[in-house]
């Protein structure tokens, strides 16, 4: 069953899981992907119920069962999932079939990767977010994909631009042909920041300050991570018409998503999945 959340996002519901897809992201059927919701899992308490965070304090067996359910729903081989240790920086990790199972069925060798990319089939990439921005990238010419975790530090550091450039170096990706989707994450009206963080946005987006920052009360500001990452993609050469924004806020929709800010960190994790089938 598919339920439209808005014109840019659909909720796909199976007997065991529910996840979000982006109808405007025109990828072929053999590109399997989804962004998890918190529905239909087996975790309890603050992790209820589809928690996919391994290091949040949840029972490991419950987390693995949640992965099984989500992977079955999307059509991914659970034992081949590739995870990384995200550190809110801008390192892009190239992934091959030899890395299948990394961080899930084997020790996590990727110590500081906030973006994963591959051009190999049946290697599902996974990133975690709970307000940060998940960005899905597809190169239809060279059949390469990337999945990006863009927190505010990664956003101002240009992780989306870095990832497109890395795809160009490794796979010959033409940025003008990349298809991008910006998934559920905290929206502009919810993402309040202080002056120190606002200053970093000021520096990173000097020519587009008014597009990414809005003055709040006192010394506070509100930052638009969706627009900021779109600007970074555009600066890398991705075409505006090739970028779709889901328009779903993790903090505004607590019934669907875990939100770090909404719960003061007492929560599970959402996850983005992407694989060449």
Name a few traits of the molecule.
277 residues; alpha+beta; CNF1/YfiH-like putative cysteine hydrolases; 6-stranded mixed sheet; 6 helices; 15 strands
* CATH evolutionary superfamily: CNF1/YfiH-like putative cysteine hydrolases
The total number of structural domains is 1
- The CATH topology assignment is CNF1/YfiH-like putative cysteine hydrolases
CATH architecture: 4-Layer Sandwich
| Strand composition percent | 15-25%
- The count of DSSP E runs of length 2 or more, i.e. the number of strands, is 15
The radius of gyration over CA amounts to 17 Å
Helix content: 10-25%
Q: Helices and strands, in N-to-C order?
A: EEEEHEEEEEHHEEHHEEHEE
Structural class: alpha+beta
**Span between N and C termini?**
22 Å
Question: What's this entry about, in short?
Answer:
The chain is an alpha+beta fold.
Account of the 3D structure:
The protein has a single domain (2-276), classed as CNF1/YfiH-like putative cysteine hydrolases (4-Layer Sandwich), CATH 3.60.140. The mean pLDDT is 97. A six-stranded antiparallel beta sheet has the order 1-2-3-4-15-7. Strands 5-6-9-8-10-14 form a six-stranded mixed beta sheet. Strands 11-13-12 form a three-stranded antiparallel beta sheet. With 277 residues, the chain is of the alpha+beta class. Helices cover 21% and strands 25% of the residues. The chain contains six helices and 15 strands. A hairpin with a 2-residue loop joins strand 1 and strand 2 (9-13).
């Amino acid at each position: 069953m598919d339920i439209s959340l808005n014109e840019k996002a659909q909720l796909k519901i199976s007997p065991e899981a529910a996840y979000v897809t982006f109808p405007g992201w025109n990828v072929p059927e053999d590109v399997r992907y989804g962004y998890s919701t918190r529905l239909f899992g087996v975790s309890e308490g603050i992790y209820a119920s589809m928690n996919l965070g391994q290091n949040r304090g949840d029972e490991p067996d419950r987390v693995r069962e949640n992965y099984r359910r989500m992977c079955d729903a999307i059509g991914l081989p659970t034992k081949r999932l590739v995870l990384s240790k995200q550190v809110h920086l801008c390192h892009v990790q190239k992934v091959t079939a030899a890395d299948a199972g990394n961080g899930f069925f084997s020790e996590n060798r990727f110590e500081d990767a906030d973006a994963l990319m591959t051009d190999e089939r049946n290697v599902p990439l996974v990133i975690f977010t709970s307000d940060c921005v998940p960005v899905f990238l597809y190169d239809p010419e060279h059949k390469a994909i990337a999945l990006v975790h863009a927190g505010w530090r990664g956003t101002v550091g240009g992780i989306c631009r870095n990832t497109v450039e890395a795809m160009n170096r490794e796979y010959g990706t033409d940025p003008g042909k990349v298809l991008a989707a910006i998934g559920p994450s905290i929206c502009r009206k919810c993402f309040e920041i202080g002056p120190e963080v606002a200053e970093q946005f000021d520096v990173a987006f000097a020519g587009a300050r008014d597009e990414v920052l809005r003055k709040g009360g006192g010394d506070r500001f509100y930052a638009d991570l969706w627009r900021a990452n779109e600007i970074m993609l555009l600066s890398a050469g991705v075409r505006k018409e090739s970028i779709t924004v889901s328009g779903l806020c993790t903090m505004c929709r607590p019934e669907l998503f875990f939100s770090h800010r909404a719960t003061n960190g007492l929560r599970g994790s959402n996850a983005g999945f992407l694989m060449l089938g």
